[in-house]
Amino acid sequence: MAMSAGKSKGAIAEINVTPMADVMIVLLIIFMVTVPIIDRQSVELPPAAHVKDEQDKSKALVLVLETTGDLTIGEKKVGPFEPALAQVTEMAQADPLRAVWIKADRGVRYAWVGSLLEACRRGGADNLKLATNRAEVQ
Q1: Can you list the pairs that 44-52 forms with residues at least 24 positions away whose Cβ atoms lie under 8 Å?
Q2: How many Å is the maximal CA-CA distance in the chain?
Q3: Residue pLDDT, tens place only, 25-84
Q4: Distance (Å, rounded) from C-alpha 60 to C-alpha 72?
Q5: Alpha-carbon distance 133 to 17, whole Å?
Q6: Right CATH number for 61-130 from 3.40.50.620, 3.30.420.310, 3.30.420.270, 3.40.50.300?
Q7: Distances from the Cα of 71 to the Cα of 26, 65, 74, 110, 127, angstroms
Q8: Domain ranges (residues) in the chain
Q9: Could you report the per-residue pLDDT of 67-85, keeping only the tens digit for each?
Q10: Mean predicted confidence (pLDDT) in 90-102
C-alpha cells in the first residue's frame, strides 16, 4: 500500500504493483510446470539424406516399433514394448553376428528406440542399423 505524508486528501498518483507481482508469480509457476512437460514429448526425426541400400536383408532380424508401443519381430507381432525387450535380447544372443534392423515409426518416443538399441547391445548384437526414409529433394 502506498502512504503519503501530509494532509492532502486527493488521489494517490503512485502505481500499486501488488496485483502485477501476483500475476507475474502465477505466470512463473505456470512456466515452471509446463517446461518439463514440453521437454518429455517425442521428436520427429528427419529423414536421412544419404540412404544406403543393403542387399542381404533376408537374413537380418527386423524389429518394427509402432507409435502405440507394439513391437513386431520379423513377421510376428509380439505385443507391448516393455515385456518384449527380454525376447529381443534373447534373439540377439542367439546369433550376435546377424544384422539387426530397427524400423521405428516417426512418432515413436526416442527413449523407446534407445531402450531397443540397449536391449540389442545387451544381447551382443554389434551390427545394428536404423531404417530411414530417403530424403525428398527440393
Answers
A1: 44/106, 44/107, 45/106, 45/110, 45/132, 46/135, 47/132, 47/133, 47/134, 47/135, 47/136, 48/132, 48/133, 48/134, 48/135, 49/135, 51/132, 51/133, 51/134, 51/135
A2: 95
A3: 999 999 888 877 765 544 444 566 555 555 555 678 888 888 888 888 887 888 787 778
A4: 14
A5: 56
A6: 3.30.420.270
A7: 43, 5, 10, 15, 20
A8: 61-130
A9: 888 888 887 888 787 778 8
A10: 83
Q: pTM (2 decimals)? A: 0.55
Spatial separation of the C-alpha atoms in residues 95 and 90, rounded to whole Å: 9
How far is the C-alpha of 79 from the C-alpha of 46, rounded, in Å?
27
Amino acid (1-letter code) at residue 123: G
Cell of 80: 507391448
Distance CA 15, CA 99 (A): 71
Edge to edge, what strands does the sheet with 61-65 contain?
A: 76-80, 70-73, 61-65, 100-104, 128-130
